[in-house]
Structures are given as C-alpha cells and as structure tokens.
Amino acid sequence: MSENLTQLARKIDFATDGEEVTTEEKKEEEEEEEKQPFQQPHWPLEDVRNKIRQAFTEMSVLHDLLVIVKQKPPVYMVLDPVQAEPLEQKNYIQFLALKKSLQSAATILLNGAERLRTSQAEMGRPNRAVQDFHIELLRLRQNWRLKKIGNNIIGDLSYRSAGSMFRHTGIFEVSKADEASGPNATVGPGAVSPVATVPARGIQSSLRVTVPTELMGSAYIFVCIKKDEEDICSAQLTSSDFVAGDIPWQQKLEKAQNVLFCKELFNQLAREAVKLTPSIPHLVVGNQITATIFPGIHLLVGLCHSDGKNNVRGKATAGQGPPVVGGQTSNVVGGGSGSGGLGPATVGGPGPSKYKHEHDLEHSLHQLLHRVYHHSFQHPLPHPVYAPMGMSKRRRAAGPEGMDKNQVISLMKEQTLLEQIIRQVQHNFLRLRTMYVIDQLAAEFKDPLIVSHWNAFNSPTQSCVKINIVTQGYDSVLRTKLVIHIFERTLKCICRDGKIMTMSFEPQELRNLILCQISQHNMAALQALAKYTGWTLLSSEQNIGTGAIEPLGNASTVMLASPSGNKVIGVHSGPHQRVSVYVSSSPRPDFYPSTVVMEQRWEHLGSNWQEVRLDRMEGRNFLNKMELLMAALTA
Amino acid sequence: MALPMSVPHVGETIESAIKNQIVPDQEFLLQGSVLDTSLGVVIDRLRGLCDNADIPPETFHDHEVVYLLKDFNAPVTPGPAAQGVMLRVRRAVDHPELPYQLRYVGYPELGNYPALLRNCLDVPVSSNVCEFLQELGAKLDHEFMAKGYIMKKGRIKVTVFKMYKVGAGMSKDNLEPLTMSHMVELSVLTTKTDMSVADDLRALADQLKPLVQLERMDYRRLGPP
C-alpha cells in the first residue's frame, strides 16, 4: 500500500508548469536531480518532500520578486514592455499565394462556363449524342417511383404499391452514365461499332439504371399441357427476346419488373401447389410445377429465366434437347441480322421442342395475379362510416343476419391461383378435345353433314358449341340441332327434343352421342321426306329390340308404304351400322297357291323382303337415294 | 382459405383475444375543419394522398342517433359515473341494405400520443337497435346527418363531411346545415399493442398542413354541454 503511494507520489513533478524558471534555477534542479540517484532515500517520501520544498522555494522567490516590482514608487525594479520583433514583410510570397488562389477560382469559373456552354450548345443541336441527364431523370420519374437516399437515387420496381405482398424489395439504382466508361460510351452516334449497333438507338442515354442481378435478363412463365410422354401438340419453345448487352433503361426496367412479376407468380403457385392436397398430389421440382388435370394429362408450369449472361435457368423442356440455349447463342452471335429483341423466334436445338407454350394460359395466369392485386386494394369502403374497413359487405352483415359457422366459412373461401388455373386448363383441354372429336366426325361422315358453330364469346371455364346435322340438299327437310356446353370436367348436351345429357370428359361418350344423333337424323329425315313424296308411314321404332346388338345405343327402323300401297320400304339404321334398306311388294309376284294357302287373296300379304344395295344406287346421299328409290317404286 | 375446423367456443376465443390484446378497439383520431369554400382544394389534395386516386372519392350519407344510457333518477354528482354512457347508432341513408352500426366511444386516454387515443367499439347491428336501446332505458340525446366523402389510405380512414340538422319536414335533399364548414377526420383502428400506425396518421395530417389544421381535440376542454 505504502509502496504504491510512494510510487504515485514520485511521479508528481511540481516543476512541470514552472516554465518560467530561470536557467540558473533549472541548473540547480538538474544538479539536485543528478545528486539524488546516488543518495539512497532515507524514507520513502523523501523524494516528494524534496520536490515540495523546491516548489516552495520557487514560490517564495516569485513572491519576493512581485513584492519588489509592486513597490511604489518603484525603486529597484520596473516592468518594461517588451518590444516585439517586427515581422519581415515577405510580399512576393503573399502575391504568389494570392495569384494561386485567384487562378484556381478562375479555373473553376471557366470550367463551369465551359460546361454551361457545351450544354447550351447541345441543347440547341437537334441530334444530340447524349441526352440531358435531368430531362431523362424527369422522364424516368414519370413512369417509375424514385426516391433519393443520400447521394443515390433509388427506384422501386415492385408491385407493392399495386397490392403485391411479395417480399422481394425490387429496388434499382439510377446513376449518371460515365461518358468515358462502359462500352456504350465508346459507341458514339457516328462511330462504327462491330457488334452492338442497334439501328433504332441513335441517341445515347445519359442515365444508367442498375437492377439487382437476380432481376437481370428476362423471364416468362412456361405453361404447357402434356400427355403421358406423348405429344399432344408439337411445337418448339421459342426463346423470347433475351437481353444481350446494353439496352435503353425503359426496356431494361420493364424486363426487370417482368422478371419480378414472374417470380412472384411462380412463388405463389409453388406455395399453393405444396399446400393443396388433391387426390393426385402436385409435383413441385426445381422451377417447375406439375399438376394432373385429367388422368394421363398433366399441366406443366415452369419459370424460365435467363439472366443477361447466356445462362438459362429454369425449366425448358427436361431432357428434350437444348432448345433455349440454341436461341440464346444465335441471339448473341447473329448481331448483324437481328440482335436485341428483334431476333426471330429461333428454333432451339436440333429437333423441335416437344411442348408448346400455351400463350393464352400464361396470359390467364398473369391476369389472375393482377386480379389478386386488384382485390387486395379494392375493399369496399365502409357504410355507414363507423363500420370497420377491409371487410366485404357480406361479412359485415354476417352478425346482424345471424349467419352460422358454415356460412361464414363459405364467405372466407377463396380459390387459389393454382386451382383457378387448373380449372381453366381443364376447360381449355376439354374444349380442344371436343373440337377435335367433332371435327373428326365431320371429316368421317359426309352423309349427313355435321356443322359446328363455336361461340366466340366464352368465359375461361365455360364455352358452348352448336351442332347442326343436315343432309346436303335436304336441309329444308330436317335439321337436327344440339348444343353442347363445355365446362371444366363435364359436357352438357341439350338436344332438340329437350333431353339433357351430362357427359364426362371421356371423348368416346361424345362420339357415341353424335353417332346416335346421326342415326336418328337419318330416320327422322326419311319420315319427313315421306310426307313430301306422299308415302305413308307404317311404323317407326326408335329402339328396336331385334336384330344384331349394337355396341352402344339401339337401332331404329322405319316402314313406309307407297301411295298406292303396293310397295313397302323398310329401313334399319343403328349408330354403329350402315343403313340398310329393304323393299317388299304386294301383291307378291311369286305367289303360288299351296295346299295350306290356297286362295288368291293371300298374295296381298307381301313378298319377302329384298335388300336394296344402296352403295350401287345413284344419288349423292342417303336421302337422295331414298327419294330416287321411292320414285322408282311409285312409277 | 378455410377457417380451422376445430373452432373453440366463441367465448373462449373472444376472451383470449382480449387477453392477448389483439382486438382492434383503440382508435387514433385527428380532427380539423375546413370552410366550404376551400373544400375542393382539400378533396383534391386528399385524392392525391389517398389510395385509389384514379376513381373519384366515394360519398356517404349517414344518419346518426346518439343515446344516453344512465340512471336518470340518481342525484347529479360530478364525475364520469354520472355522465352515463353514450351510444351512437349510425345508418347509411344511401345504402339501406347494409346493417346499422352501434358505436361506443370512450374517453380520450391521457398521455403524450401523436393523436387522440380512445377506446372505441363498433358492432354491426340490425335495424331495430333503436327500440332495443330504448327498452334498455336509454334516452335520445341528439341526432344529426353527416354527408360527405370517404377515402382511405392504407388502414387510415379519411372522412370529410358536413353535419346537418335533423327535424320534421326535412327530406333527404333538403337539409339544413349546422355550420358553414366541413369536418375532416382521420381515424385508424388499432390494437393496444400496435401504436406505430399513429405516426402514419400524423404524417398524413402533416401533409394537409396549410389547408387543414388537424389536431387532437379534447372534448373535456370544450366545457360542459
């Protein structure tokens, strides 16, 4: 303890402030200090005591001195002001300094004037190489949200202000393009550029926008329908305009925003695909989602994203050759023909890609997400104004109307994007397949003709076709009409007689239905024709129980008698059989009285049925042949 | 999105919601007024500030009836207990199909909040609520019509309206205004735990600064009615 105190005390130097100590005193001190190391201190604080004493001596001297000086009248000492030594005037240095500062000020002014002059000159010139930064910034601001943070200008690409909930920040930075840096600066308007000249871009932008690397390039959502490893539609994947190098900022920003949008859309779909639990679960692998829409039919949704460096990430067609990369390289190399976004839809790879990108479905997906945005912003405003915000009108009324739990839950239900797109795809697919079945039948059957009218106005999940079955040349005799409504998984057919049939998505059902309708049309048309020709309808049976069994449906028959009654025509027609015609005449020409039937009058019973070989007959179609047959039999 | 199917008893749900303070029963309010002559300017400014700037602001026409519920026979004593409870019933005249709203507004909270903070409970009710309140013993205190514009900015509800007298012989089109000015109200409902929205409210109010002075109005300073 005491040692520590001694140590500390030794450090005190009372002479540190004594700068005015006379040299003599200093010398004394030094002498003393020199002596001290040789003497062993008698007691620990001796050192300190010596210093204090020294300080005391100095103070006493100073005090005495002051007393003598202050003596009035001054006798021994007078204080005399000290004349400061006059500074030597170094004029030339001052002048030099002045000249230098003036020169620097002048340079600044001259530089400014020069810049003003050049900018003025550029303003006057119509075709300037570089646009004014501020004017461009103003134009940028008209279309994009900008914010100034510190010295940087930050823009916002996200759709958050439009109702998006995506967590990506989506910011971009705006800076002034350096005149001397970057490849674009070297490519002046007059300079001949080897590769990157785009004829449309004569004016060089003075703005440079920097988007995050993950939003570079371009992206789109790839949608296709595929059968189990079998082509349903064969076309190649076209690589859209992939960015190569330098493009105007507006395009660049739009592309980046599109990438952001596609990412959000895919993100949302993937989340829903995982969350939904249908009977056949959806597959989410990497950048693609596979959902089963019908047995054996799959919907494929993929995110195709290519950054500007020739890297295509994302789906492209798995294992089907490199379709997109081919398009990429041609885009970069073939700068002469059409670079940038002007390149033709390039066929990728050696063979055409297996799957066709469904543009309308991609559009529907975009629309669906836009609708989500819209809904998140378009809550009805409360009335009366005390009502809480952000609630639908029905939910507000739930309390006073005393809704039960199920009703409230039904209010909350909302279809996810994936469910909606699957429904649309199902409808789309079913519509195409219906169209295909009808067209096949129309091509297969020329007699009677099948005419289909598709409704041009339809919803994404419902459309309608009207089918007319007529016989050529006899369309005033009879038209068989039916309407088919196509929904997501079912078809509803409304026949002329008011029968409504609901069919599943299997194409065979529709085919059978139309075949039955054709058969019935033939029979009905024959009956109508008989009226015109004066033949009498003896009988008609829609569903005859005899004869060969039809695989589906029933055969029908018609019996007609000639005006004079001596000829009878029998017609038999089934959905899957040809029409067969039989003729019988009475009195029968070959009546011979036998032991059982003796009387002559029995010859009127009618002869055996004889089949008419319709294919050998003249006439364009069935009804025409029948008309000729009737005419021949009447004559 | 479906609600979880195993919904607990309603009472428990409400209790736990109250316990966790997630019921939006706190209202931040800023009020101001503007003369009729400069109403157009304020509306234009608000349209620019609020959401859905592309469509014209929605109008509203509400009828408010205020009931007082207290022990009318008790001797008059100073203090909040004697003042009773005020219950406000509002109906939308222009939307008769929508439910009425019953509102209870508490006293402003003490403390240094950026806006007036008060307890506020809103319940949608059926149209016979007035008879119900009268059966409870509430007495009609006053009533008025409010007519104006409603806008929103995020969670903030912005109303600009004028109050009209209600009386016999006053049809929907022929109303007698109470003042020559419009009231501007910014309000937002929040929970006890989330007070950050008050700053948004203040920011919006500051944007309207030279046109409307939006302030936290303390009714108790206005003196007894």
UniProtKB/TrEMBL annotation, chain A:
Oligomer status and interactors: Component of the Mediator complex.
The role this protein plays is:
Component of the Mediator complex, a coactivator involved in the regulated transcription of nearly all RNA polymerase II-dependent genes. Mediator functions as a bridge to convey information from gene-specific regulatory proteins to the basal RNA polymerase II transcription machinery. Mediator is recruited to promoters by direct interactions with regulatory proteins and serves as a scaffold for the assembly of a functional preinitiation complex with RNA polymerase II and the general transcription factors.
Q: What is stated as this protein's family in its record?
A: Belongs to the Mediator complex subunit 17 family.
By what name is this protein known?
A: Mediator of RNA polymerase II transcription subunit 17
Q: Does the keyword S-adenosyl-L-methionine apply?
A: no
Q: Cite the Pfam families for this sequence.
A: Med17 (PF10156)
Major place of residence: nucleus
**A Gene Ontology biological process term:** regulation of transcription by RNA polymerase II
Task: Write out the ranges of the annotated region (Disordered).
Answer: 1-42
Q: Where does the source fall among the domains of life?
A: Eukaryota
Keywords on record: Activator, Nucleus, Transcription, Transcription regulation
Acidic residues bias: where? 16-34
From the Swiss-Prot or TrEMBL record, state where the protein is found.
Nucleus
Q: Which GO terms describe its cellular component?
A: core mediator complex; mediator complex
Species this protein is from = Cherax quadricarinatus (Australian red claw crayfish)
Quote the InterPro entries the UniProt record gives.
Mediator_Med17 (IPR019313)
Record field: transmembrane: none
Can the keyword Transcription regulation be found in this entry's annotation?
yes
What one GO molecular function would you report for this record? Answer: transcription coregulator activity
TrEMBL record, chain B:
**Broad class of where this protein is predominantly found:** nucleus
Question: Carries keyword Cell inner membrane?
Answer: no
> Which Pfam family is an annotated match for this chain, by its short name?
Med18
Checking InterPro entries in the record gives: Mediator_Med18
Subcellular localization is given as: Nucleus
Entry GO terms, CC: core mediator complex; mediator complex
Organism's domain of life?
Answer: Eukaryota
Keywords of this protein's UniProt record, alphabetized?
Activator, Nucleus, Transcription, Transcription regulation
Gene Ontology biological-process entries = regulation of transcription by RNA polymerase II; termination of RNA polymerase II transcription
* Gene Ontology molecular function: any one: transcription coregulator activity
Family label: Belongs to the Mediator complex subunit 18 family.
Describe its function. Component of the Mediator complex, a coactivator involved in the regulated transcription of nearly all RNA polymerase II-dependent genes. Mediator functions as a bridge to convey information from gene-specific regulatory proteins to the basal RNA polymerase II transcription machinery. Mediator is recruited to promoters by direct interactions with regulatory proteins and serves as a scaffold for the assembly of a functional preinitiation complex with RNA polymerase II and the general transcription factors.
PANTHER family recorded: MEDIATOR OF RNA POLYMERASE II TRANSCRIPTION SUBUNIT 18, MEDIATOR OF RNA POLYMERASE II TRANSCRIPTION, SUBUNIT 18
> What is the protein's quaternary organization?
Component of the Mediator complex.
Quote the protein name from its UniProt record.
Mediator of RNA polymerase II transcription subunit 18
Per the UniProt entry, what species is this protein from, by scientific name? Cherax quadricarinatus
Which lineage ranks, top first, belong to the organism behind this chain?
Eukaryota, Metazoa, Ecdysozoa, Arthropoda, Crustacea
